[in-house]
Batch of 2 targets.
Target 1
Amino acid sequence: MPIDPSAPTHTLLRLESANCCALIEWEVGRMPVWRHFGARMAMTQLSTQWPASALRRQANASMDRLDGNPVFPGFGNGLSLNPALRAHTDGRGAVHEWVATSFEQTTSAAKQTLELHLQDASGLLLDLHFTLCWESDVLSLHSTLHNRSAHALQLDWQACGCVPLPADLSDVAHFSGQWGHEFQWQRTALAATGWQMQNRHGRSSHEAPPACFALTPHSNDHQGEVIAVQLAWSGNHQFAMDRCDDGSALLQAGVWLAPGETQLAAGASNHTPTLHVSWSNQGLNGVSQNFHRFARSQVLQWNGGTMRARPVHLNTWEAVYFDHDDATLRALAERAAALGVERFVLDDGWFPGRPNDHSGLGDWWPDEQKYPHGLGPLIDHVQGLGMEFGLWVEPEMVNPDSDLFRAHPDWALQVSDHPLQLGRQQLVLDVARPEVSAYLFEKLDTLLRENSIRYLKWDMNRDLAQAADAQGHMAYAAQVRALYALLQSLREKHPAVEIESCASGGGRMDLGILQYTQRFWTSDNNDAVSRIAIQSGAARLFPLEVLGAHVGPAPAHTTGRSQSLALRCAVALFGHMGVEADVRKLTPDEAEVLARWISLYKKWRDVLHGGTFSQGCTPNGVWWLAQSGGKAILGVFTQRAPASMHHAPLRLTGLVGDGFCQVRLLGMAGQERARGDALAPWLDALRDTGVACAATELRHIGLPLPNMNPESALVFALELQNP
Ligand code: GLA
């Protein structure tokens, strides 16, 4: 059909933020299509009169109807894309062709929103919600399906939304992992057949956390266009990138639903969680910095509205495990306080029937043998030393050997005709049952009311396997929602109590649970070398202040490998720092080293936790740079044997500011690779008074570095002379 440019049939709907914009072509009665998601453009820079259907000629062997790339692919229209909704009623009504009916837009200084209303001939209504956050360039999408048909609908898949990936975004990256090795970066070319990732662990998982990245072939940490997405959800999920018929791709993500998991009665609605999409043409650091700003301004909830300085932790787990003995714990607390620790977290082992991990979960009151007068005396001691007290709990779990299970064996998620499936000798409670969440609320509320507890380490140590409710329906998603509701009611009742999300280390780290929690336990692996990769990966998604990082014992309990105390400290510095070791056993020299790093953390935590974080690679390791207000802290970690005799100057791409910087060496771990009798004037100067370097020179030529042996670290302060 010839197009009359003077009478456009469509509208371009536009959302904009500081650097980014989203454009959707809208025409009542047709499926809205994506025109653009990426660099910001003014309306005057756009040719608005040409609809997507006019931009292509019909191809051979294609359907007669021409559309662009849909905002929510239907099913049964000849497109080969994964449908964004898969639903039917007893096998009928599976075709869905969405057409636009109306839209609403709002604009404020902080964000712009767009809500599209679509309908399908079978009596389904769909709302697509888009919010673009001005300062972070993060676009948030979720969808709501209303069943206005006369029949119950079996829902097999409902995407939160779909995001267009331009054809030159050709690579996909995501994280793989396992217990103790979270956030392992994987980057591959996006195949012609697309890409998919599913997680059916029932929690965000070590194996496939809910995030992925689409990159241009030459993009890297510092440059190139990247689109990254994170699903705010702590359960099963699915991500897919489909190739469209023009070679570009469409990304969709949502909750992976088990067979029969979601039935939508006539008149009922289903809301998806939110998918957060970060766009940048400044490489991976650009999308990560967007996510960090977004988490800080839109996700994290601090008591009183602002984060206070992140206190140094002492966690008792790798110090004493289940051996809770009053004298030992008091001595640990005393040594910890002397080192500068500010929060003492009593880990697993404090409740009855817990000499090991075989029993006791569910009975959330203090063990009368270990704590004859309750937790009060230990808490008083800890507070008397000037520290806060925190407590480990694992509320969603129950051991068959517990009073709770003996009283309520039916409270566990299970499939009636199958044998109970244990993980770490425990079962998962059906938290969506009101009596179960009421029990958990009552027990936790009592602990928090009767004791001066300022922090909960909320653990979750097994996958959901047979997650069927009392009626036999799979209840993975209901479990996540019930967990969020429980966390929310505890937060409302005890707003001053911070919560850490732990799941055998970093098995539940996502923007969904971060709305209710203030810290992640990034990994059970405290081996500093392993931690470099884990923390580099996690920092691509989350700001450093929520990444728990502890100085563990040597040898590390999870790997058997030993690193110097200084290296363990340097790595833990770039997170929310803590100590997880029997500090009673430190030699005076070690105690001095640890106390020095703790005090360094306290001096620099406002920069580490409030500014911009970048990372990059050296030929034999990585560097991390946190900067804020004219100050920066740089960590250079050598992991492997050096590639050359001398280290090339390290270009600090992303260093902000002009003029001169005073560069000082704050801390060093490991040995330099040089003759013992060789002079080191540069290093001496860095160590003594520091050296003035032009910021431009540091960006373009680089910071000269000593060549270090493997498993070493250099930590520098960079202070702009005239910020
Ligand atoms: C999990 C956590 C650990 C510790 C133990 C206690 O493994 O990740 O940090 O709390 O449970 O049982």
Target 2
Amino acid sequence: MSIGAARAYTNIALIKYWGKQDEQLILPMNSSLSLTLDAFYTETSVRFTSELTADRFYLDGQLQNEKQTKKVSSFLDLIRHKYDVPQFAEITSNNFVPTAAGLASSASGLAALAGACSAALDLSLSPTELSMLARRGSGSACRSIFGGFSEWQKGDSDTTSYAVQIPSDSWEQELAMLFILVDDAQKDVSSRDGMKRTVETSVFYEGWLTAVADDLVSAKQAIATKDFTLLGETAESNALRMHATTLGATPPFTYWSPDSLKAMNLVRACRLEGIPCYFTMDAGPNVKVLVQKKDADRLTARFAEEFNENQLVLAHAGPGIEILDSERSLTYD
Ligand code: 2P0
């Protein structure tokens, strides 16, 4: 019997991953760049045992059904195949989020799972190898291996596509991100389905690929020179470009809801009022606002005038993956 456990924090992309060149290997069409955050994380323990005849997955204390276990089991199948492991596993995973507003993240979840498997099987992987492995579970998970800023270099094969930490002289410690949790009245399009539809059908996808390469250069320059305005403007434009591709898909779709627009407009108003801040959005209606730590309280107070306080969560830069004492983690059962 082998046991391992890990904690991984979620990350939010400032330059988005949007589209795959290889769906099986999860190789992206473009490189991306993210900030790992402290406010949302997942702790996962994995126990491989010959007592089981199928994987058993507990999420936040609830035993998951076969459909809910599929993504985890597919990842474990990969591990079993790659490392010649015959056993099934019991997986216990807990998402630590400040509210119950659907903020569970595949980035933190699959990164923690990869770390727990690596610990359980004593694989002695380097951070780069762990990033490659986490990528096979969920693309964005490869960036959560590292704290602070990380860049997922797209590569063109299983061993050339992984994240690296971006040197920043700890500049990320001066930044914060305010999450605006927005109700979603629409039917969800998963990020996996959304990016696939966009790559295959969007008349704007070529434009995205051209723009994102330049945006990445600008974002890295901004980090190197600690230029908050350049980083914020680049991230906001990049998010809008990603979301523009969904309107050019067949059938068209959008992740925006009326309250997403309200939050975006409030960010623009805050800038005019003298609070430098910039928004980004992912495959859902929530809006995330990049701000300097020194302005975070003012920004939060301004948003509290227009949104409920329980819709607002302030996050700061977070650490990379941590391997946990597996005995401790098993007490979450
Ligand atoms: C990102 N997103 O860079 C982008 C921006 C959503 C929008 O990575 O199919 O859950 O498992 O590789 O990592 C969400 O996609 O997708 C994502 P898969 P994943 O953060």
